[in-house]
Amino acid sequence: MIPVQRNWLDGLAIGASTLCLSHCLLLPALLIALPALATFLALPEDFHFWALVVAVPTSAFAMTLGYWRHRRKAPLLLAVSGLACLGAAELVFHGTSQEACVAISGSLQLGFGHALNMRATRH
C-alpha cells in the first residue's frame, strides 16, 4: 500500500477522533444551554457502542500499516490506550458521571496516536 493511502487512513481516524471529542465536549454543553434542542439532537442509545465497533478495526488497520513501515511503538501504544479508554467508557462507565471524562481522554489519546502514526509514516 502506498504512503498516501496510509496517510488517508490516519487522517480519517484523526477526523473521527475529533468528531468524537466534539461530540463529548460540545453536545452536552449545547444540551444544557439549550434544552429545547434535546429533542432534535438525541442520539440512539447504542450510538457509542457502534462508534466503538467502527473505531476498533479501522484504527487497528491504520496503526498496523503504519507500524509495519516505521516500527515505532509510541503511536501504537497511544492508540491502543485510547481505544481501551473508549471501550471502558462505553462498556464499564456507561451511564455514570465518569463516562464523559474517560471517553474524552480516550478520544484525545487515539487522535494523538494517529497523528504520531501519520507523522512517523511520512518520515
From TrEMBL:
Source species, domain of life: Bacteria
Entry's Gene Ontology molecular function annotations: mercury ion transmembrane transporter activity
One GO location term (cellular component): membrane
Record Pfam families: MerC
Keyword Transmembrane tagged: yes
Keywords: Membrane, Transmembrane, Transmembrane helix
Name listed for the protein in its UniProt record: MerC domain-containing protein
